[in-house]
Amino acid sequence: MNPAIIIKDLYKNYGPIEALRNINLEIRDKEIFGLIGPDGAGKTSLFRILTTLLLPDQGKATVLDLDVVRDFKKIRKIIGYMPGRFSLYQDLSVEENLSLFAAIFGTSIEENYDLVKGIYSQIEPFKKRKAGNLSGGMKQKLALSCALIHRPEILFLDEPTTGVDPVSRKEFWDMLRNLKDHGITILVSTPYMDEANLCDRIGLIQNGMILSINTPEKLRSEYPNRLFAIQSEDKFDILQRLKNAGNTHSVFSFGDEIHYVDDRLDITADQLEKMLRELNLPEFKLEQIEPTVEDCFMELLKQN
After folding, report:
1. Does domain 223-303 fall into CATH 3.30.70?
2. What is the pLDDT of residue 302?
3. Which residues of the chain have pLDDT under 70?
4. What burial class does residue 114 get, using C-beta atoms within 10 Å of its C-beta: 0-12 exposed, 13-18 middle, 19+ buried?
5. How many of the other CB atoms lie within 10 Å of CB of 186?
6. Does domain 5-213 have CATH number 3.40.50.300?
7. Is 18 helix (H, G, I), strand (E, B) or coil?
8. What does the alpha-carbon distance between residue 220 and residue 197 come to, in Å, rounded to a whole number?
């Protein structure tokens, strides 16, 4: 079976700004693929090319064997797209928005209700409310329902959980897993590294380049260094002093901890603690930990 999406040697520039540089990527059929990276990394530009809203400068991309430039009309009929910014008609009601999108694709709410039922049923009690008056989580569910109402084969979700509360984020990912069970291929972008663990495979992107493509588990297993977490009430002081220490490979703030990697790859927690005490650092607690996807991302940035 051919991949659902194939991207080869793709480039996109905005004047002197290189938004995408030599992107090569394949998305498998019926998988949840996460494109993970910070704002400005190139995620939205890639999504707009794949959804036929933007032309590439070089390279080629196909969606279900259809060329994104030559076959754009055919592609638009078989994909669903949820842009990062809420783009539905804010002066129309929930029900009117969904009916409109169904009519555009020559279908009806009733015909495909089984696909959106789990999502739409949560906002159906507010179906007469104008879309502009919905909460962030409800807007998200309405936008997803509109993207699905014509039963697309591939779903593109560009930063769908940005600005949404943690409970709604969890509910949203539960919905995505259910949609995958319906046989839909899902490409989702996010700046949240913790959401990477919810994808079948991920691509880490920065400055328009793909740094790595792997499963979250494989990516973490290939982390090359011993990683240590340091906790202290004087975190900022420790962070600044470690940045200037001679054997520091990398050090950055991670929530209420500091994540530290030493240039000496075989150093143990006991050895590192002794070294830090000799630096007369403020009181701290240290332990060796397993890397997160964000740790892997930071290491790849250092290598590139």
Report:
1. yes
2. 85
3. 1
4. exposed
5. 22
6. yes
7. strand
8. 10
